[in-house]
């Protein structure tokens, strides 16, 4: 039951959907708190060494060192972010409890301020926050009764209870607004990803479209840094007859299967993560694209033409083994023709290079003994 509750009474799935932003906020707020606490306790430690409340030296020195250690753990990601958050909160509140308990007549100002501060800064589900705050409140009250006596303990109980309730209310209000902001940010990021997919990728096959591939190709022409790049043009054999005989849905399925084989056997790193498109560099990366219809382009790196041909043979074997079945229509033994050009940094224009590869592909189609043709540019 508690799993289904978050701060503002909606589905726990909403909280989970914002988890990346929640963790980022936790890390930011915890680091801010730990840095502030380490500086404050360092100043108090120095003042104590100089003679001000000398007996409180360890009260200031220990939290100073602890906050520095926790800040390091958080910055270096040495542990779960939420665990470090709770350790930081505990350190802060225990410091306030000890500070108020040292002197029987000491007002528990530090604890009361800190419980409200943690309520504002930190994010977790409401049920977790309630349990944690009241556990700390129980420690505070027990310590107060033990060190200060019943009368002061009752004052601290009343004040601590009120401030804990205020902290929880503030937690609910502040974090609700944060969660709404996180949800809006998630929706914005999703829409941006969708726009990128539409701009860069072919909607049917899921691989790059012509314009995005040609842009990458022009970049490698403008700034060449490799000599092992092979550019290929691939065309399905008898694709028109497949569409005419079995229907366009079968033809579409053949396109999708070929795109999947291309990504698998040509090792395209962005295949399952389209956001990596903006980091692709054809000087080092492989890429595949659909020009339209049954025509595809690819760019791969291979140490030799023989190894490039071996890649293509694996690709052909993969595609020929596919069985396409749509609405009872079954197609097997699919083939393609492929022309490949070993790019030697001797073109200044992507379109001219594309036209040359296109010509090699048509030469490959005329061959009867092999479906692949690899040439030097």
From TrEMBL:
InterPro entries found in the cross-reference section: Diguanylate_Cyclase, GGDEF_dom, Nucleotide_cyclase, Rev_trsase/Diguanyl_cyclase
Keyword Transmembrane helix in record: yes
SMART domains from the UniProt entry: GGDEF (SM00267)
MF (Gene Ontology): diguanylate cyclase activity; kinase activity
GO cellular component: plasma membrane
Segments passing through the bilayer: 31-50, 56-74, 81-98, 104-123, 130-147, 153-174
Keyword Membrane in annotation: yes
GO biological process: cell adhesion involved in single-species biofilm formation; negative regulation of bacterial-type flagellum-dependent cell motility
Annotated GGDEF domain residues: 227-377
Keyword set, alphabetical order: Kinase, Membrane, Transferase, Transmembrane, Transmembrane helix
Domain of life: Bacteria
Protein's name in the database: Histidine kinase
Organism expressing this protein natively: Intestinibaculum porci
